[in-house]
Amino acid sequence: MLLMYDADTVALLTATLEEAWASLRAHEKAGSSKTLLASHILELASRGERNPIRLRTYALVKYEVSKSEAYKNGSI
């Protein structure tokens, strides 16, 4: 499914991604990617969420969960 966002929403999502990325420590950035965070933000945004705090929190929580699962599975 292709979703279209207006310019204001794209600006909000971009700022949210940059804030989420900036909140990670250097070693966390080394073990992740902006693309992963962006996919989490877009996942929630596709359901209509536009609150930047909720979007950022969701992305960071999903990042932590995926990191924990990777440790459990031995892929890290």
Topology:
Layout: H1 7-23, H2 26-30, H3 34-45, H4 52-73
Short description:
The protein has 4 helices and no strands. The chain is mainly alpha-helical and 76 residues long.
Total number of helices: 4
Q: How many discrete domains? A: 1
Coarse shape: globular
Number of strands: 0
Kindly state the mean pLDDT as a whole number? 91
Helix content: over 70%
Largest sheet: none
The parts where pLDDT drops under 50 for at least 5 residues are none
Portion in beta strands: under 5%
Radius of gyration, Cα only, in angstroms? Answer: 13 Å
Distance between the termini: 32 Å
Structural class designation: mainly alpha
Order of helices and strands: HHHH
Description of the molecule:
There is one protein chain. With 76 residues, the chain is mainly α. It has one domain (7-73). Helix content is 74%, strand content 0%. The chain contains four helices and no strands. The longest helix is centred in the C-terminal third of the chain and has 22 residues, at 52-73. It starts with 6 loop residues before the first helix and ends with a helix. 13% of the residues are buried.
